[in-house]
Amino acid sequence: MRRSNLPALAALCSLLAGCTAHYPINEPYSPVVAVPSQPKISETRSDSLLVGLAFSGGGTRAAAFAYGVLEVMAETYVRWEGRELRLLDEIDTISSVSGGSFTAAYYGLFGDRIFEDYADKFLYRNVQRTLTWSIFSPASWRKLGSSKFDRSDLAAEYYDEILFEGKTFGDVHARNGPRLQINATEIALGLQFTFEPAQFALICSDYSKFPVSRAVTASSAVPILFSSVILRNYAGTCPFEFPPWAKAAQASADTSSRAHHLVKKMAKYADREQKPYIHLYDGGLSDNLGVRPFLNRLTLSGNSWELAKIMGVVNTQRMLVIVVNAQSEMSDEFQQSDNNLSLGQAISASSSIPLNEYSFESLTLLRLALEGLASQLIKERCKEWAETRQSAEGCDDFKIYLVEVDFDKLTDRKRRQAMKSLPTSFHLSVEEVDALRASAREIMTGSREFQEFMRDMEGHWSPPASR
After folding, report:
1. Among 1, 82, 178, 216, which has the minimal tally of Cβ within 10 Å of its Cβ?
2. pTM for the structure as a whole
3. Cα separation of 375 and 367, whole Å?
4. Three-state SS string across 53-70, please?
5. Residues 6 or more apart whose Cβ sits within 8 Å of residue 152
């Protein structure tokens, strides 16, 4: 059958069969089942050791690279507060974008099961081929003939089938694992949309019942290749108001500040008549590293001490931040010729340049923010302890370790180029996936910052066979 006949068949389906397929609608807020804005602190995690991960975008390349980091953390043990702890069990939060969201979401839902079946279910699977052919499958024609069901909705169903089992964010919360922050881009505002309770409270929607598969789909929905993931906006139908620190930013006379700019955009969700629907695309359009949720929260809260109090981490002594960056590198073969760039090369350059530069700026902002956080937290904690305790001894015991896991840290030039040249797709060979996992291990264990953390924490590695 000729593919050119497919649009006609879809139209015929629409006329004759009714084509009632509809994407799953996010439910309005229900006080009975609403998830708390902050997850419970697990009895197994120390509140004086804070571990946060950020997984970048980049298709299967990013998913496999992030998976390799989790493998290393599963084999890493540290001694803290008189106990030996597996580093993987101490992860407090994972923020992810696009390809990295598959790994983050699977671990957030199923924990250690990720080491048993995730590679076969996703990393080694030709997901791209299945997604492509599903569009042309007769089984999909009836659904795709509907104006309320499109390519991303089909992808979300497939991800549920092979990975997420219909689970929701309520299931993530019930496992009491790391706080999961999956990031997409709200296309009308150009604003990062983070799948977390606070974001859903803003639109009066029930976070706990939202399917994880649709969040991951939104996070990885590259425009044109995929359709937008659509949410309904129920703003004004539930008791919601901005917290004091956001109100202060909104009322600030400094209208050029980042805080004022962020709140001004967020406040637009309140106009439900003007903005009844929210269209989400790939999170990489607004932040390809997954570090912006922290930066934005720090900006809005006003200062590090206020943020520490909001998050309940005022007694933190050690903070480990791992940024897993699977950034690719644009081919520069055109430099060897005096011919004009092809259309493909021009498109690649026009998308890669802003993406890579924005990621560089985000990392720079993160380093500065962490430096400021350390100095301000020590200053304010020592001041408070001096006023409220008999002794302020130990108030300055706080240290941050920023570990950047990216391909530029590979010492072998050929391997470095090979990893950076892997396509941003949903299909890699088994050998390429394993090479990414091995690269993550080499970079993590060879990182000067991570080695410093291990020395300070009396850490050691335990090979898989001995666990």
Report:
1. 82
2. 0.89
3. 13
4. EEECCCHHHHHHHHHHHH
5. 217, 218, 221, 226, 227, 228, 229
Q: Are 252 and 260 in contact (CB under 8 A)?
A: yes
Convert the pLDDT of each residue in 167-224 to its tens digit: 999 999 999 889 999 999 999 998 999 999 989 999 999 999 999 999 999 999 999 8
Sign of the dihedral through C-alpha 10, 11, 15, 16:
negative
Q: Where are the alpha helices (DSSP H) in 119-257?
A: 127-136, 138-144, 151-159, 169-175, 197-202, 212-219, 244-251
The SS3 of residue 282 is strand
**In this structure, what token pair is assigned to residue 364?**
């720079």
Asked if 168 contacts 212 with a C-beta cutoff of 8 angstroms, the reply is yes
Q: Cα separation of 91 and 80, whole Å?
A: 14
Spatial CB neighbours of 18, under 8 Å, sequence gap ≥ 6: none
Check if the beta carbon of residue 217 is closer than 8 Å to that of residue 159.
yes
Phi, psi for 159 (deg, rounded to 5): -65, -35
What is the distance between the alpha carbons of residues 88 and 416, in angstroms, rounded to a whole number?
26
Provide CB contacts within 8 A for 9, sequence distance 6+: 141
d(CA 137, CA 451): 51
Contact 87, 174 (CB under 8 A): no
Tokens of 296: 């934005």
Which residue in the block uniquely carries the two structure tokens 């109100």?
247
Q: Is 233 helix (H, G, I), strand (E, B) or coil?
A: coil
CA 328 to chain centre: 18
